[in-house]
Specification:
The chain contains 11 helices and 2 strands. It is 71% helix and 1% strand. The N terminus and C terminus are likely disordered. Helix 2 runs parallel beside helix 10 and helix 3 runs antiparallel to helix 5. The chain has one domain. It has a two-stranded antiparallel sheet with strand order 1-2. Its main location: membrane.
Length: 326
């Protein structure tokens, strides 16, 4: 076929191959690559299960489910990427599952930072005379003139609500997208004004930015207080999962839809872009799973110390009042 007509090769416009077709067409390099990536995804899940057992035994009850949710981000994404790699026609569903899970993780990470401070009441008590700096990313990092907001029960509730809406609405839009897809109204590659994807995806993007803002505000507020609990590297891993699972995948998929990623039958250009994204995510999430295991498996519970501090305060305050009255 002439070079100028390569983009019209019918093999580059066909649906993604079935799982059995992938297995039958794998060469030696493909067998090794798929085996290694599948092994990485399986190890990530096993590490996560072992971490869950440790958390269940060693971590206080108020933090168990939160830490398990946060730790599960990388293994879940690696597992969904592995399924999408073996079953290319299920890519839309595996990506939606990963995105929905991470939407919950965004809210859980905000709650984790509050719980590390001792919970809502302890946080409000410690920050009674402090303020939130809202001129932070991803919304207002370029607006240093914004006023600081006092730390109150109402402002804390608004921060929680800002992240919770994403966890809720992402699930709603995922279900809506699947329902529309079954009716033939939702297609990721359909960028026409009459398509559902062109309306749903930007709106979800706005909700994502709104949800990330409260987490950034809270992190800027507690990063010094929770420095001994490794909150900075934990936040870095959370941000890295966000960038790799959302931004990296979006860039590769956009390049594939524009034809920048060449087709390689039986994979079309778009299907090959999804394949590359999933293979990269398996490797990246495997590494992140190992790093997060080191961060969360340590003894970092501040609750006994907080109780000791409270007891010391109760012992010190009466003596101080006696001296003042004298």
């Amino acid at each position: 076929m002439d070079v100028t007509n390569q983009t019209f090769d019918p093999r580059c416009r066909q649906q993604p191959p079935l799982a059995i077709d992938i297995i039958l067409n794998l060469d030696l390099f493909g067998i090794i690559l798929y085996s290694i990536l599948t092994f990485m995804a399986a190890v990530a899940v096993l590490v996560f299960i072992e971490e869950c057992v440790y958390i269940y035994r060693k971590v206080p009850a108020n933090k168990k489910s939160i830490i398990i949710w946060v730790n599960g981000a990388a293994p879940i994404i690696a597992t969904m990427s592995c399924l999408g790699m073996w079953i290319p026609r299920a890519t839309m569903f595996t990506d939606m599952t990963s995105a929905t899970y991470f939407a919950v993780v965004v809210f859980k990470f905000l709650i984790l930072m509050i719980e590390e401070c001792g919970g809502d009441e302890a946080f409000l008590k410690q920050s009674a005379k402090k303020t939130f700096r809202i001129s932070t990313g991803p919304c207002c990092c370029c607006c240093p003139c914004l006023p600081r907001v006092p730390v109150t029960r109402r402002s804390l509730f608004l921060l929680k609500l800002g992240s919770f809406q994403f966890a809720l609405m992402k699930m709603v839009f995922t279900i809506l997208s699947i329902v529309l897809w079954t009716n033939g109204n939702f297609e990721l590659t359909d960028l026409n004004i009459t398509g559902a994807a062109i309306w749903i995806n930007p709106f979800v993007g706005v909700l994502t930015i709104i949800a990330l803002w409260p987490v950034a505000i809270m992190f800027m507020h507690v990063r010094i207080t929770l420095r001994t609990l490794k909150i900075i590297p934990k936040y870095a891993m959370y941000q890295l999962v966000l960038v790799l699972s959302q931004l990296q995948s979006a860039i590769i998929n956009i390049l594939a839809m524009n034809g920048t990623v060449a087709c390689a039958p039986p994979y079309s250009s778009q299907a090959r872009g999804y394949l590359m994204s999933q293979q990269l995510l398996i490797l990246e999430m495997f590494i992140i799973t190992l790093v997060t295991r080191l961060l969360y498996r340590r003894q970092y519970d501040p609750l006994p110390l907080a109780e000791d501090d409270d007891e010391k305060e109760k012992m010190v305050l009466p003596s101080e009042t006696i001296e003042n009255t004298a």
